[in-house]
Amino acid sequence: MACQQFDLVADRLQISHDERDRLKYPKRSMTVALPIHRDDGSVQVFEGYRVQHHLTLGPTKGGLRYHPDVTLGEVAALAMWMSWKCALTGLPYGGAKGGIAVDTRKLSNKELERLTRRYTQEMIPFIGPQVDIMAPDMGTNEQVMAWMMDSYSMHMGYTVPSIVTGKPVNLGGSVGRREATGRGVAYLVNRATDTVNLDITKCTAVVQGFGNVGSVTAYSLAKYGAKVIALSDVNGGLYNAKGIDLRKLETYLAEHNTVAGFPEADPISNEQLLTTPCDILVPAALERQITEKNAAKIQCRILAEAANGPTTPEADVILDQREEIFIIPDILCNSGGVIVSYFEWVQDLQSFFWTETEVVDKLFRILETAFTQTLHLSRKQTMSMRQAALSLGVSRVREAKKMRGLFP
Ligand SMILES: NC(=O)C1=CN([C@@H]2O[C@H](COP(=O)(O)OP(=O)(O)OC[C@H]3O[C@@H](n4cnc5c(N)ncnc54)[C@H](OP(=O)(O)O)[C@@H]3O)[C@@H](O)[C@H]2O)C=CC1
Ligand SMILES: O=C(O)CCC(=O)C(=O)O
């Protein structure tokens, strides 16, 4: 998917084939074996990955995913998207992504800690605050980042907060990082409602995935006045035309560890959720949710891609013809996370910490610029918002490579 999208943009930008390869191939791809002791004394080996896409603009940056289906190819695609995302938002980074093929539900907390520390240890030759900086993604969180920071710091012999972002605030994390991605999604949705002349206080919203990104997006959209009518996690979805009471849902989630079965809504499947009529549709879980099978059935006005790669290129062809749907493409829509990660890194390097107001103001300023530039290009050159966002990201990396000298 990432390569297909890149080739479409490269065609438009008339990038030659040798230059394309230079932009497309990841600089470094690592696969590591991670043996750990299980709590019962047995040994199990997991497979871990890290792909660093390009090093042209600074260190590489991107999340670490724990999911049973993680593969090297998926991580490579996510790393490439991180590159275009960082360039689109003007961050001094190349893209990276990592992952471990693991079902975290089947591991105890101690096992998860051992796995994380082992992965960090294997990655030590390839990471560093000026080399590659990890952050949370699906299945990982502040605790995982704290273990990584601790493992790296033990190796160095002193505390190195800038080795990861998305850490707990009392270990050098930034205020506002946990909320950053969802908060950014809601900010951009609000901007998109203005663009398509919708009143957000009269809008209905549907959110797939209720983890870090999905839940904060739902709460933030509700704060803007939208009515959240459907939600889901891996176990299934919920629908209530009158709106889902998010406070009650929070209590239910804390008790049941899933949103499925919440009594004040009707159960729906994740497939049904995606085609539920609404104004704002937010996929905030996995890739490839909107495909050629359901793209024609989606019934929203704004598609806000909080997840990475939720829409396949085949679905894009269908959505491009449905001009009534305004798409906020993933590399723009979920960029709030890496933007505040950048702020966290800067704060750690300076050991000087900002207030939440400073973080949020700076976040919104960067998002505003990226949104305006993307919208402007999309209108000026009559291209989709995805093509415009990718064109801006790819062009900036290409220019930087040219300026540094293409063939050292
Ligand atoms: N965290 C961040 O800052 C950023 C994340 N993203 C992207 O946002 C997306 C979500 O990440 P994040 O919120 O961090 O991850 P989390 O692990 O916190 O949450 C993922 C959510 O998706 C649900 N889910 C998993 N599989 C499915 C499925 N097949 N159908 C429906 N729901 C499913 C999970 O359910 P359950 O909990 O029951 O497993 C959970 O609610 C990913 O694409 C990620 O790459 C992008 C930018 C930054
Ligand atoms: O915060 C970061 O560094 C990376 C976030 C991320 O993984 C993403 O934007 O997909």
TrEMBL record:
Catalytic site positions: K97 (proton donor)
Task: Note the site residues: Important for catalysis.
Answer: D137
Q: Which residues bind NAD(+)?
A: T181, N212
Q: Where is the Glutamate/phenylalanine/leucine/valine/L-tryptophan dehydrogenase C-terminal domain?
A: 174-405
Q: Which Gene3D superfamilies match?
A: Leucine Dehydrogenase, chain A, domain 1 (3.40.50.10860), NAD(P)-binding Rossmann-like Domain (3.40.50.720)
Write out the entry's keywords from A to Z: NAD, Nucleotide-binding, Oxidoreductase
**Source organism superkingdom:** Bacteria
Zinc-finger listed as a keyword: no
What does the record give under GO molecular function? glutamate dehydrogenase (NAD+) activity; nucleotide binding
- Does the keyword Nucleotide-binding feature in the UniProt annotation? yes
Entry's Gene Ontology BP terms: L-glutamate catabolic process
| Database matches in Pfam families | ELFV_dehydrog (PF00208), ELFV_dehydrog_N (PF02812)
Per UniProt, where does substrate bind?
A: K61, K85, S341
What SUPFAM superfamilies does UniProt report for this protein, alphabetically? Aminoacid dehydrogenase-like, N-terminal domain, NAD(P)-binding Rossmann-fold domains
Indicate the family of this protein. Answer: Belongs to the Glu/Leu/Phe/Val dehydrogenases family.
Q: Provide the protein name.
A: Glutamate dehydrogenase
Native species = Pedosphaera parvula (strain Ellin514)
The top of its lineage is:
Bacteria, Pseudomonadati, Verrucomicrobiota, Pedosphaerae, Pedosphaerales
